[in-house]
Amino acid sequence: MAEQWRFVEPRNLVPEAVVSAVGYRSELPEPVAHLGLPSPAVTFVLTFDEPVVSGFCERGTDARSASIVLGGLHTRPAHLLQPRVQTGIQLAVRPLAVRALLGAPAAELREQAFDAREVLGPRIELLRERLAELPTWSQRFTALAEHLRSRTAEQPASPRPEVAEAWRWIAWHRGNGSMSELARHVHLGERQLNALFKAEVGLAPKALSRLMRFEHARRRIALAVRGGARPDLSSVAHACGYFDHSHLVRDFRQYAGTTPTTWIERELRNVQAAGAWANADLAV
């Protein structure tokens, strides 16, 4: 099995819009099923070989095949069929930057995976073809950055400042802050903040906080695995603000559909390889 991964620092791409970026190339003996776990970012994938098959139903009844995939925020695992040969680029996009990139809020992508051509138009297919033809990852990422900057320049839309500040506050507290304290911080009532936040992001602040806390726990577990250690789940739970180990397992069952231990066993290769999120800044 041959694999190549090229991680790019967001500051070398479009840091105000991109949390993490990875170029990948792999050749497998046969297609492999893979779980895409929920995260506080919108997923954008451009493939240069075989298309990606994805959906949220484990039995595949909602599966779609696409060479350019745009996945919104979700609170259940996505199921992907990883093709035997795959080359491409995957971005984790900041939800509050989606409005500038797409001309619509991230809420419109909620719990869905699109063929991105339906949302971004024919220009995105031209970009995919151009990137596939370029010989190096550096050239590909340079061309991608130019495309993203041109899109944000065309429609420089921003969310309401209260929503942006609420996101920063949640990220700063790693999903462990009080919602009443958050509402006071942004000088809004809780009901009004919930409505504004859901309209922009697709999740209420409390739901995003829980997802943000899970993301930090998942990162800690993944870092331990990549370092060759067996994760101490009780310590991870304590460090990430969970009441106890069973509370962390409960979130894993919701977001991954399984326990942390089983997730590691099933996704070991992907856990070991996926380093792009390791030091990613989740704030705006």
UniProtKB/TrEMBL annotation:
InterPro entries per UniProt: AraC_XylS_family_regulators (IPR050204), Homeodomain-like_sf (IPR009057), HTH_AraC (IPR018060)
Annotated ranges, domain HTH araC/xylS-type: 178-266
Keyword vocabulary terms for this entry: DNA-binding, Transcription, Transcription regulation
Domain of life of the native organism: Bacteria
Protein name: Helix-turn-helix domain-containing protein
Organism: Saccharopolyspora griseoalba
Lineage of origin: Bacteria, Bacillati, Actinomycetota, Actinomycetes, Pseudonocardiales
